[in-house]
What does this fold into?
Amino acid sequence: MSRAFLIFSGYNQRAVIAFCRVATKMNVPFHIIASSKDDTIFLTSYSLKVQAVRREKLLEIQDIEQCMDKVRSNVPDTNFVILPSSEFLNRFFLKHRAHFLSIGCELPLCEESLYIRISDKYSFGELCRNNNLKVPSEFNFSEGVNPPFVAKPKRYFSSKKTPSPYLILTEQDWDKFLETEIVEDFYLQEFVTGKSLYLLYFLSQKGNNVMYSQENLVQQAKGKSIVLAKSTDLHQKSIAMEYSDMLLREGFEGLIMIELKQSGNDFYMIEANPRLWGPSQLFVDAGVPIFEEFIRGQGFNIEGTTTEIKESVYFWHGGISEDERNGNKLAFHDFTPGNLDLQMDELLKNEVYNRNDTERIYHLEQ
It folds into this structure.
């Protein structure tokens, strides 16, 4: 039996594209199940890899199985490794892991209980505290907290399916939150100001670990997607090893991004994503073999990938256009709108979609 990656596109698409670029360069076989006929994957060079199209955007087991049957008929005698591209996808396949393994589909994720403990914001915060890693202070709803602060969902799934964090900057924000959300699903944290940083890892119990880091400069409103980021040296500091050592002790392996805020000399954990993350193109452009070691870890033989590591910049202009259309204002971290305007021409040369394989998406998003 041969092996190939099976990619569900349409969500976390910039990360999916970054992986497709690496897999193509390394001659690693992969096949795609599109989220719908409107999936932007059809606007890319990877459209020829699409073997099936889902009927439902929400993951439904019968629909997924029918898509997989189509893939197997097009690509017989193949076992598949499911790319852990999005949170909802990962939790769906973890829930049905034994079933999909029985039909030749592996899931490169840790055990479900550990995955949830890391992915859910509250439980990962507790794990960090227990390992003497700093987490923002928490408040009770009855304390009469004054803005700014953050209301975070305790778990990924709650009374209202998958709630998002709320950045409470004004009393009006707080009133809106109380009117629209079920408070028992949330907890309150101080709003930490300072540098916005990501620690980026592929971790393996076998020791083939790779780490890198980025500083986030511009972000969509309300804590949404990163628009501009650059390489930094946080992965060379002791804090990076403290997190990786903790995760490995817990039995974790795989891809993970940990978001931190730096306030003075202190680093505060904001959240962890044990899956692909949106600005993955940054470490790909930097020559950091996070995806390559992940691919090797799934049993694929690829040629040596020793490359010179260089600093890089990640830029997604479509995120700016999206916020403008929605009437939202970008968030700047140790950066200014003036800096963005001055650097725009140079940034566009490295825009995540402004490349030969995805230029149709780039033009669509403008």
Notes: The chain has three domains: 2-107, 137-190, 195-365. The mean pLDDT is 95. Residues 2-107 form a domain with the Rossmann fold fold (CATH 3.40.50). The first strand starts at residue 2 and ends at 8.
